[in-house]
Amino acid sequence: MTRGVRTVKLGLVYSTKNQLELTQRTLPRVSGYTGKYDLHWVDGSTDSAALAYLEASKGEVYQVHRNIRGGADSAIAFKLTELLKLPYTHIGIIENDVLLDEDWFRTDDGAVRERESRWT
After folding, report:
1. Which of 6, 11, 50, 96 would give a disulfide with 23, using CB separation of 3.0 to 4.6 Å?
2. Distance CA 38, CA 59 (A)
3. What is the enclosing helix (H) or strand (E) of 31?
4. For the chain, how many helices (H) and strands (E)?
């Protein structure tokens, strides 16, 4: 069997609803590697401070969706359905209440993960 290299296109859904302090902690860690993947932010916030933070942070993400009816689960399902229609090879979800290490997207040897996958 031969080994090959294929390009991976990764789309991540970042889900938030209020909880500004969690968003302020996780968004910089999630958006810090956006050259390696596309970050799609879905937000169901009603808190004015959370909404203001969302507006101020729009430049850090690929796409922002707000006011999706049906709550957080509907917003995530909406965006995942959209991502499945796009040419992503991998998709994932990160919610703002997930605590990420600062180097969460680095390999064990410290290198930033690349958009390529090795397979056999």
Report:
1. 96
2. 12
3. helix 20-31
4. 3, 6
Contact indicator for 92, 12 with CB cutoff of 8 Å: yes
Instruction: Give the separation between CA 88 and CA 41, rounded to whole angstroms.
Output: 16
State the DSSP code for 44. -
CA distances from 15 to 8, 53, 66, 83, 108 (A): 22, 14, 10, 14, 27
Name the one residue in this structure whose structure tokens are 């729009």: 58
Q: Residue 120 corresponds to which tokens in the numbers above?
A: 């056999």
Q: Over the stretch 31-79, which tens digit does the pLDDT of each residue have? A: 877 678 888 888 877 788 888 888 888 776 777 777 777 777 888 888 8
Structure tokens given for 104? 């969460």
Provide the residue type at 9 as one letter. Answer: K
* N residues, the chain: 120
- What helix, strand, coil percent values describe the chain, rounded to 5? 30, 30, 40
DSSP class of residue 101? Answer: -
